[in-house]
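Reopening closed ticket. The problem is back. First fold of the pair:
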Amino acid sequence: MTAGSAMAAISAEEAAKLGNELTPFGAEKAGNAAGTIPAWTGGITKDKIPAAYKQPGQHYPDPYAGEKPEFVITAANVQQYADKLTPGQLAMFEAYPESFKMPIYKTHRSHSSPQRVYDATIAAATKAKLVEGGNGVTGSIGAIPFPIPKNGLEALWNHMVRYRGEYVVRSASEVAVHRTGVYTLVSSQQEAGFKYYYPGMTEAELENILFYYLSFTKAPARLAGGAVLVHETLDQVKEPRQAWAYNAGQRRVRRAPSISYDTPITDADGLRTADDTDMYNGAPDRYEWKLVGKKEIYIPYNNYRLISSEVSYEQLLQPGHVNPDLTRYELHRVWVVEGVLKEGARHVYSKRTLYLDEDSWGAAVVDQYDGRGQLWRVSMAYLINYYDLPTTWTGLDVFHDLQARRYHIQGLANEEPAFVDFSQPIPKENYFTSSSLRRRGTR
């Protein structure tokens, strides 16, 4: 990838397609020729929110609860559908031939976002650029920077800065499930302020901060009271991610400079790296990124049943993978982005392939390869539309280790996220600071 192509913005003629033959985020509005992918008509808008949804924090009623699978992919018939599956999904059938399956449902292009994000994306389309070296973006605050991507880095940045609200609070758990199905829940309260999308935010006021993240551990008892604070920087090569950890036993806050790249996440029992979180995050500088193109793939989508309050942990958590009878897959167009480790760079993954939903830019599936070039881990984001906001984001992130035959889940909701649309940004000096971490951790 040349420096010129990395810095280039799209033309006014290309940008004119946004909101016309393309959605405001750059997806094809039209359905596919086979009729198996419908046209995008705005997704789940306010008039389409289920009547059973009453207030923020409530579990989200399934808008498609009455639907049944059109067919089910199993190990017995998987080759019939292999052209619409990722190598990682195919490997799941090979690893768990008796239990893994994919119920395929009618496709709904349910993604929607606030009008202000659509407007900002269209306005920024001719201005947004990668910074020198591709380690950040400029000219696109509050917007998807590259709705018509020209290279892999642009597509990757669309995923990393996609809209997920302004501020979110949730009580959730994560869990590592062993081969036998044994697990221990780690529960926490999490808060995130997406500064990039604060109303009225400017690039100067952003101060290279993409978002703030704060997490307090509630259980088990041996971990309760601990906390982590992260200032996620936009350009992490220029200014590395800033992180602090609070130790309840010592009542001390310490800097945590190593929470980046392939650092193993402790609560994930080593099954997830720091940059696996949210399917991919952080500095992209250790990989050469290639935009392979667009493809039709069966991906997790509209998985409201999977996060229902009526589903117990015992029903959900099974050896090898989550209960497939609770999952939902649909055929969607995805952007395929491939990252190959640069010569001389270090990371436990030699290659990672991301499959980005064309409507929302969220990664739905990621295949990761070890140092020998063999498929190692398969990550899946079970997407839903949080229609009170609205945005398409994960309901559960599941990280499968094919070699260890274990998996990790992030985002088991004790209650659904509560999104808050602030009219003014939250002053960082009053809230997401290390001193705030100490005061709140002692309460």
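Second fold of the pair, where the issue appears:
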Amino acid sequence: MMLSAFFPFYQFLWTVYFVCMFLVGFWCIFMFFGYVIPIWLTAGLAEYFGKTKPFDPEEVRRKIMTEQEGVELLYSNPKGRGPFLHTDGHH
């Protein structure tokens, strides 16, 4: 069978694809000019000129178990032989 026999269906598929990509493209344009650029012109410039508090990486650092609030660590320094890591150099 000839591929051209399916031409109307392929034309429909390409039309649907074109409309979807058209909408996606306009969404990207609107998001860039309506969201990204205003963020750059407000929060970004405020940070650049020092109007916000300086970034502290400790605020976003994952805290270790003993630093977390509400956590009770029962075995922080195990002794003896077992399936755990020793800090004194032998196993």
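Update: turned out to be a display glitch only; the data is intact. The mean pLDDT is 82. The CA atoms of residues 72 and 90 lie 27 Å apart. Please close again.
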